Task: inverse folding
């Protein structure tokens, strides 16, 4: 089979240069009064020199991006994708088809206007789990043909085994007039604007909302008490930032998950969403390393559930934990989960076993030691002649004790564990709650910990490490009997 060699769509030049132009625009806009004054009084040699340097830099950036576009070629060979750049320094990256995990499509506003797609290709690598390895911009027709071509080769690593009906499935050339897209696909689950707005409310960060309201109140209070243009400007920035944060807390997910749609077909999940930036990608079922069922504090009050999946090499840094279901009541959530992952009996994993009752002894000791430590610190502060009444320090210490008890209780009622035949489930959190369902075969290794007190009680705690992006690869188990960890060890080793 002949190789296919092509360049990105020329609109990538505008995208690469546009960021610099926008940054300069804001700089000029901020100094609009100075520019107006300069225009009235005339440009001095110094001013002309500055403008000349700016235009020269812009020209050089534009020329450089044109050269990079012109000298960069993408080649699909028999079992590899080669990206070759022949500019000042020659550079060639080769990606084996067998190491590619997925091909995703994405569109920002500019690309939607131009009619192009950004192709993102992810590889099976933990080191690149939070970044996409290849990004290519193509016209819509060529983008879908490229995606189909690569996906086909992923299922046929050796071209000698390709069937004679290959051309009926995907065309060999990116220039072919026939291409396939998913614009008219009938998704199994589609969320309306009203559904996404409900998700925004149930997924609201209570702490973030209270913090930003406090910042707005502080800005208003200070602006009333103090005068001065500089302080007013600074407070204006704080107020605008806080208001924007509150807006993002309420409506950020609406912009991100607008028209959220998902479909299960054969061994893949097809997902599409986005308002300002449209994302379309497919997740192979066998690349799901964990399923997370999540509840924010508000969701726990209203008994709402949402879920995402943990993958490696599927999606990008924003979607490594790809959302598959938005907030809904338990009945709808389980019904939709049966559509997407019918091989998983979700109800089985929602009833988890709490930690051993003996672990209360460990927690009581931790609270007592923590209270003693805080008491010593507060006593040392009191000895510095702060002028405060000792009752205030006693009150602070009592509040710390109450918060410790509250946190311990919330952790206790949130944490749980279940061991099934093929999967395990565990939950954790304080006010929010997350249940993670993991196949035994997806666990890389397990750490079991035993302290002096827990060993006397016959208890252990542990950590499970799964294949996921950094910061999302550890699952912490509470205190359970040693026999449970022995059973878990056997499940991990022999599955």
Result:
């Amino acid at each position: 089979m002949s190789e296919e060699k092509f360049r990105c769509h020329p609109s990538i030049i505008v995208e690469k240069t546009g960021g610099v132009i926008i940054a300069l625009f804001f700089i000029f806009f901020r100094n609009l009064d100075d520019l107006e004054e300069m225009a009235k009084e005339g440009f001095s040699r110094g001013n002309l020199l500055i403008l000349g340097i700016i235009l020269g830099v812009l020209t050089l950036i534009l020329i450089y991006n044109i050269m990079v576009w012109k000298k960069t070629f993408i080649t699909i060979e028999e079992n590899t994708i080669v990206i070759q750049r022949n500019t000042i320094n020659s550079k060639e990256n080769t990606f084996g088809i067998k190491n590619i995990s997925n091909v995703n499509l994405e569109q920002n506003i500019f690309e939607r206007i131009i009619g192009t797609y950004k192709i993102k290709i992810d590889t099976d690598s933990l080191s690149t789990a939070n970044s996409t390895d290849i990004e290519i911009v193509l016209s819509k027709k060529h983008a879908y043909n490229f995606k189909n071509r690569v996906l086909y080769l992923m299922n046929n690593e050796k071209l000698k085994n390709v069937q004679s009906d290959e051309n009926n499935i995907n065309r060999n050339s990116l220039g072919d007039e026939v291409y396939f897209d998913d614009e008219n696909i009938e998704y199994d689950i589609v969320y309306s604007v009203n559904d996404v707005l409900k998700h925004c409310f149930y997924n609201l960060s209570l702490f973030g909302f209270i913090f930003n309201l406090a910042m707005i109140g502080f800005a208003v209070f200070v602006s009333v008490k103090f005068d001065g243009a500089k302080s007013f400007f600074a407070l204006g920035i704080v107020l605008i930032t806080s208001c924007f944060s509150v807006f993002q807390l309420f409506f950020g997910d609406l912009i991100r998950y607008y028209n959220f749609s998902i479909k299960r077909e054969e061994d893949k999940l097809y997902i599409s969403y986005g308002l300002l930036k449209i994302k379309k990608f497919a997740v192979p079922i066998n690349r799901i390393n964990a399923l997370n069922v999540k509840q924010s504090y508000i969701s726990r009050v209203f008994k709402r559930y949402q879920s995402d999946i943990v993958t490696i090499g599927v999606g990008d840094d924003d979607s490594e934990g790809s959302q598959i279901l938005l907030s809904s009541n338990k009945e709808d959530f389980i019904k939709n989960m049966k559509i997407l992952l019918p091989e998983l009996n979700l109800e089985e994993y929602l009833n988890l076993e709490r930690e051993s009752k003996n672990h209360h002894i460990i927690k009581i000791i931790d609270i007592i030691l923590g209270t003693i430590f805080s008491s010593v610190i507060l006593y040392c502060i009191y000895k510095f002649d702060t002028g405060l009444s000792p009752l205030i320090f006693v009150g602070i210490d009592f509040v710390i004790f109450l918060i410790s008890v509250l946190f311990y209780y919330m952790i206790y009622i949130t944490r749980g564990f279940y061991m099934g035949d093929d999967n395990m489930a565990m939950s954790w959190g304080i006010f929010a709650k997350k249940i993670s369902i993991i196949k035994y075969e997806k666990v890389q290794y397990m750490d079991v910990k035993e302290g002096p007190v827990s060993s006397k009680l016959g208890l252990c705690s542990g950590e499970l490490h799964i294949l996921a992006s950094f910061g999302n690869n550890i699952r912490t188990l509470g205190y359970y009997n040693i026999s449970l960890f022995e059973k878990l060890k056997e499940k991990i080793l022999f599955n």
